[in-house]
Every structure is written in structure tokens, then in C-alpha cells.
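Cont'd.
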Amino acid sequence: MIENILAVPKSSWTSGKGPNHHIVLSSRIRLARNLDKYPMNAFQSEDNGQTVLEKIEKAVVELELIEQECLGIYHMDELTSRQKQILFEKHLISREHMDEKPNKALLLRRDEAVSIMVNEEDHLRIQVLLPGLQLDKAWDEADRIDDMLESRLQYAFHEEKGYLTCCPTNVGTGLRASVMIHLPALVATKQASNIFKTLGQLGLVVRGLYGEGTEATGYLFQISNQITLGRKEAEIIQNLTAVTKQIIEKEEEIRRIVYNETPLQIKDRVNRAYGILKNAVILSSQEAFNLLSEIRLGIDLKILDIGVNIEELNELMVASQPGFLQNKAGKTMEKLERDAARAELFNKML
Amino acid sequence: MIENILAVPKSSWTSGKGPNHHIVLSSRIRLARNLDKYPMNAFQSEDNGQTVLEKIEKAVVELELIEQECLGIYHMDELTSRQKQILFEKHLISREHMDEKPNKALLLRRDEAVSIMVNEEDHLRIQVLLPGLQLDKAWDEADRIDDMLESRLQYAFHEEKGYLTCCPTNVGTGLRASVMIHLPALVATKQASNIFKTLGQLGLVVRGLYGEGTEATGYLFQISNQITLGRKEAEIIQNLTAVTKQIIEKEEEIRRIVYNETPLQIKDRVNRAYGILKNAVILSSQEAFNLLSEIRLGIDLKILDIGVNIEELNELMVASQPGFLQNKAGKTMEKLERDAARAELFNKML
């Protein structure tokens, strides 16, 4: 079953169907949880890690989540590096979860909207990832799954502080809400950095496409809450949703203005991006991301008619990444070889 | 008849049929001549200019060149700026000949291989422009026409110095031989500038596409003799031909090496150029030239199969220039409008 997941670049979030999907690619809720009476992962021995994994697996079996929720259990040490790479490229696991440490596992729902990392930084990281802007729906789902697991597992919880986590920034609700947002107009008009500064003052943080420590790629940003302590879950989600809506409005406004004032220039940007993706022989991952961003803008502005929709664009974004490319080719490839395979993919698919 | 010349971007030199046309676009011979007993143009009054023009026209009529050589006579002051611009873009007149000064004329053979400027810097500038590397053939033709004119016109000639010309650099043979050469591999590998330095030591000079004072555009260079005094015509032509053949060999060698060592990178350059020309919405003249250069390289290396041959490429080079674009549109256009019209032309023609 893991082969099916790895073979297709589709995921729940790639469907391009959620609200405001023209600007918000996906909404993510992540809950950090730890089992009571077991040391945090940073300090635990291998034996402890195994016990934690076993307890969690036992809960999953008892709750019949495999049948009821179509959940698959994958032990990370049974996966190849390339398989883990693909799960990362699909945003189903974190970069840390790719590390060669024992007792890591992934519980993945068949639609890939729910993925639970076991023994990442925390014992449990419950993630719900949906297309478009629907943090509340993602929260409802994460909360439901969390409640189920909590019915069988004793979480580390402090009456005043809330859920205890490995990293202090996650203590409290253990909740991180984030949106993946596409802001080509705000970037092009150099307004993004000012907006991002304001977000910092609101307790929000802006990161690149693959979370902490990564650069933003192709006008795509991840906005998430910084603080989890001393706030209610609903408050965090409402706050991020409201801010995201404001950013969407601003981005839409600037897109209209820029397009009305310099329609030829915008069409030129978009068409060139298409021309390069369609014809290049070597394409780095970074350049492909940037060009795909232009295509995304062109499709939204309805100035590029190439018979490609947002869903296919999202899938291309996933399919053009190193792990996917190598998996499809069935071999390890050097950078130049990957860049050539990536170019071939775009030549063919666009 | 001038309308026919202005309407089509074809010229004798654009046919892409001469020897070594894969690297040498065209060969040009130009003879500077002045009528004896009339002041040089730089010093002459308007009346003198008129007499010079009349004497030359009389010679043309008496020699029956209009009938025998299919020569057309065009008075520059009867042409619009745009018409003159197009003649310049086709390399049939110099930039100076576009100036609004009286008594300038152009004698142009129907195949556009022979063009004679009257009252440019000198009273007569006889130009023969052929495709590929065939300076000797161009010289034979220029010499033949020069002899005919000389049979009716008394040239200013000094027994020791040779033909007298307005600018001292032209005194002697009055001959300038030049080739238009395409050197993408030598430029890309940064060997062109060294070669150009050596050319200077050999009494040759390298200029841009449109002669004196212009920048080289799109890896296209004009190489010509600097010295006209104290050398025989045959010597000048043999010298330039021999040097050009060496440069061709070098360029061919480097193309092979670069292509063998980095085939993907070369294909990438060429294909991207095609992708941009085919899809851009705004294209400056400079960028279009550079991209056409890549296409030219791709066609020569047989790595780009877009059903376009060198002749069509040469025509596109002419057709995409400001005068031509505006003539086709039937109106004066601002830069952005021209850049958009140019992009449209390439989108359609490639």
C-alpha cells in the first residue's frame, strides 16, 4: 500500500478544491502529544521508544482505526531513504522524521489527509492537511482523532500549562496551525516583507515551503502560529484564519491592480514561465518552483490557457521533486540527471 | 518598387546560401569614390551636391544601368524616416545616409546585392553584399560596377595615394571589406575577446552588427579591414578571407567540443531560447537578437528541429526590427508596443 502512496503525486491537499484555493494551497493542523510517565524522545532510551511505539500501536488496533479510519502503519526503519523522501515531499512527514533513528513510525490515512508521526520530536504528532483555507475543518478532524487516541492513551498533561511537549514552544495546546499561501503579487510589489513583519507582531511566523529553517520557494509561504501556550485552540485558529483572509484580500487586490496597470508585463512573465517549463532541458528544483508559481498566477488570472488546472499543478509540484523523480526512474540520479528528468516531466505534462 | 523592397524582409544576403553560411551571414565590399574637381561632401555647398548627384544620375542613365543592371534610383529626401529606417535595417544604407541632408540618393539593384549611396560621406559608396563568405565574388562585382561608373565619371585619384576620400582612413583603395560572423561558442567560452585583440594586430577591426559605433548584438560581429592605403585590393580581400576561415575553424571546433562535453547544457540554452521566443509577450530588440543567436546555433548543431531554416531566420532578424514592425503595422509605435508586436511575430513565425 505504501507503494501506491509513493507512486502517485496526489494527496488530499493537492486536490485544489478547498475554499480560497486560488491563493491558499493547504491548511494544516498539527497536535504535539506525549505519553505520560515516559521520558520525552530527546532523553529516552531505545527501549522506551519501543514501548511508546507499542503502546500507540496497541491503541490503534484496539480502536480499530486501521479498519474504521483506513489507517496504515508504517515503520520508518522499514522504508528506504527515497521512500521517506517522497513522504516528506508530499508533506506527510517532517524532515526530522526521515532521520535514521529507531522506533519511528507513520500512521497514515488512505486519503493522506491524516498523518500521525510516532516518535518524531514528540511521541505523537497528529497532522491533518486539507486543501484550501479550512483550518477549522482540519481542527475538527485533528481534535476527533486526538480524542480517540486519548481515550486509550494517557497523555502528559499539566493542569496549568496544558499538554507537555519536548520543545517549550509547543507546550500548552500543542497546536500548530498553518497555511500554505501563494503571494506572487505581494512579493513582486515588495509588500510581502512588510506584511510578514506585521505578522510577527501578531504572534505569527512565516516560513518556507517545507517548514522550519527552509527558504520560501516560488512565492509560496507557510504562515503559522508561534505561540501555543495561554491561548485556546479556537482562538489560535480563528486568529490565523482571519489574518489569512486579510492577506488573501490584499493579494487579490494587488493582483487586480498590477494586472490592470501592466497587463502585457504580467502576461509576459506568465508566458515566459510556460515557454521555459515547456522547452527547457535542464530545470533545477528551485527554478521549477518559481516558474510553477508564475503558471499558478496565470491560471488564476485566466491569462494562460494551457488546459492545466490547479490540481494538476499541485501534483506537478510534488512529482517534480527529487524523491519522486528518482522513484519514477527506478534509480538514484545525480543532480544534472534529476534536473534533466524534471525538465522532461514539464515538457511532457504542460 | 521601393514599397516591394520595404515590404519583404528578404535581401540578397538573407538567402543563407553562400559558402560557410552556418557561421558567416554575409560578406560586404564597399568602395569609397569621389568625383574629381568637386569638393568633398563635408565641405561642399548644396549646389555642388546637386551637381554631383546629377552627374552620377547622368552616368547611370547613359550606361543604361537602370535597364541592364535593374538599378533603381531613390532620392533620400523623397523617402519617409521609416522607409529609410528599413533600408538601414536591411543593411542597404548606412546610418549616416538616413540624415536629413539634401541630394542624397540610393542606387539599388533589384536583388539588393548592389547598393550605391550617393552623397553619403563620399560622393559614391558602392556596396556589394552577398550571403556567406564570398568576399572575392563581392569584390569582382564591385570592381565591375566601379569600372563602369569610372568610364563615365572622373574620380578624384592621386597617383601615389590612390583614390581620395573624405575620411583619411579610406584613402588608397577606398576599399572596406567586411564579414558578418556568428560566434556563440567563442563568446560563451570567453575566447572571442582574445581573438579580437589578435585581429587588431593584423589590421582588422571588430564592430557590432550595424557598423561603426554599434555594439555587437547576439554573438554577431562585423570584422573588417582597418587599412586601405598601401595595400592592393586582392591582398586586403585575401587577408580577411584567410583570417575569417581560421575563425570559422576555431568556432566550429569549440562548438564540437562544447557540445560533446555538455550536450544537455547546450540543448537547454537553445530550447529555452525557442521557448521564450515562442511564448513571450514582450521582446526587446536586443533580447530577440540574443535568442535568435541561440536558435541559429541550435539549427547548425541540428539539436533544434522547428522546421525553420537559416534563410527564414535571417528574414526574421530583419522583420523583427523597429522600422519593419512599424511598416507592417502601418503606424508609429511606442517601444512597448513594438516589443509586443515583435513578440507576436516570433510567437507566430517560430
